[in-house]
Amino acid sequence: MFSFNDLMVIASKCEMLHLLSVVIMNNDEVVPETEGAAVSLEALFKALPNVKTFTYKLPYDLPHNYIITTKTAQELLKIKHFLSFDKFELNEIPEIFDITSFYG
Fold it and tell me: Range of 73's domain?
């Protein structure tokens, strides 16, 4: 578990971000589009416009229902800087992720 505010202090200007089995928590309620305690993947990307290389191995033993939802793929594609990634890698993707919309 990692606080969203702490991540922003460390990663707000970074170009490479690798997350391994971590959940970014919205402890301070600073991410309005987050539905639960965990920050959604799309909210994370909106807050990190400088990232060019992104790797995220989702924790396999925690529910992903707030990190990735049925609308995550569509929401990611709406973020302008998301389409300019040099590398985007997700591991342990739950079945709820709409891969068809993402590749379309």
Answer: 2-103
